[in-house]
Write a structure and sequence with these properties.
Distance between the termini: 22 Å
Strand content: 15-25%
Number of strands: 3
Order of helices and strands: EHEEHH
Largest sheet: 3 strands, antiparallel
Radius of gyration: 17 Å
Strand order of the largest sheet: 1-3-2
Helix content: 25-40%
Length: 107
């Protein structure tokens, strides 16, 4: 497993307008880079390291900060798809790709 960060940036929809201090506190969390509350205060742009933070952990942190993610069906499906893509990205980052014209290293 490599130590190279896998940075992902997502825009998360919140259930209600958030206090700007939430973005500041979230940015101080381990594995989270830039956090920006968009002008409508209902969308949060978050950059995070996939090797250190999972999307469900990030949404749990938001709930703990008093800024729960939106519960509407589109937002929930979007987060589920994003979590699936993040998991795939993490898994693929550690795969050593083998060209079909080269023999495997172990033979």
């Amino acid at each position: 497993m490599s130590d190279t960060p896998l940075i992902r940036t997502r825009i998360l929809t919140l259930a209600q307008p958030a206090d700007p201090a939430v973005a500041t506190r979230l940015a101080e969390s381990d594995g989270i880079g830039a956090v920006r509350l968009l002008p409508d205060r209902r969308h949060l742009e978050v950059s995070y390291d996939l090797r250190r933070v999972k999307l469900p952990d990030l949404t749990a942190r938001l709930r703990a900060e008093g800024a729960p993610p939106s519960r509407n069906i589109v937002a929930r499906l979007g987060r589920a798809l994003a979590a699936f893509k993040d998991e795939n990205r993490r898994d693929q980052a550690d795969v050593v790709h083998q060209c079909c014209s080269l023999p495997p290293e172990h033979k």
